[in-house]
Amino acid sequence: MKTFIPKKEEIERKWWLINAEGKILGRLATEIAVLLRGKKKPEYVDFLDSGDFVVVINAEKIKVTGKKLDQKKYYSHTGYPGGLKEKTLKELLEKKPEEAIRKAVWGMIPKNKLGRTVYKKLKVYRGPYHPHEAQKPQEYQF
């Protein structure tokens, strides 16, 4: 018996709408990563992009547990000497709440060419409105 491997043309992609209001950041990110990679589909193979598109709204209303708001730090470097920048999760949520979700999901997908293509299917928005009504995203229930 041969193993079934879907072709790129045979893969059916859906659009999912996730309301992040009141959801815990890490648990939300794991569900998003699973949807993006297509791991809940029966035709999943780890070397093909078989995942769906995910639209996340209300990114500003996520929750975190414990003391993560003050203790979790995000680092970036400008490329110049002494250019290491540091932000706490609280600062990141005030300025760019979408980035907190994007960074959490990025940590849960593979760091290779496939992971980068999968990551491009994630759309995150601060408020309740998004420009993807034409794709008719379905509400995703946890």
Keywords:
single chain, 142 residues, alpha/beta, Ribosomal Protein L13p, Chain: A, 4-stranded parallel sheet, two-stranded antiparallel sheet, 29% helix, globular
What is the name of the CATH superfamily of the domain at 12-63 and 98-139? Ribosomal protein L13
Task: Give the helix tally.
Answer: 5
The CATH architecture of the domain at 12-63 and 98-139 would be Alpha-Beta Complex
Query: Could you list the spans in which at least 5 consecutive residues all have pLDDT below 50?
Result: none
The average pLDDT is: 95
Report, as a whole number of angstroms, the end-to-end distance: 35 Å
Structure summarized in a few sentences:
With 142 residues, the chain is α/β, with parallel strands linked by helices.
Structural commentary:
The chain is an alpha/beta fold. The protein has a domain at 12-63 and 98-139: Ribosomal Protein L13p, Chain: A (Alpha-Beta Complex). The chain is built from 5 helices and 6 strands, in the order E-H-E-H-E-E-H-H-H-E-E. The strands form 2 sheets. Strands 5-2-1-6 form a 4-stranded parallel beta sheet, with helices on one face. The chain has a two-stranded antiparallel ribbon with strand order 3-4. The termini are far apart. 22% of the residues are buried.
Please specify the SSE layout and strand pairing.
Blueprint lengths: L14 E5 L5 H13 L15 E5 L10 H4 L1 E5 L6 E5 H7 L1 H10 L6 H7 L2 E3 L13 E2 L3
Parallel strand pairs: 1-2, 1-6, 2-5
Antiparallel strand pairs: 3-4
Helix pairs in contact: 1-4, 3-4
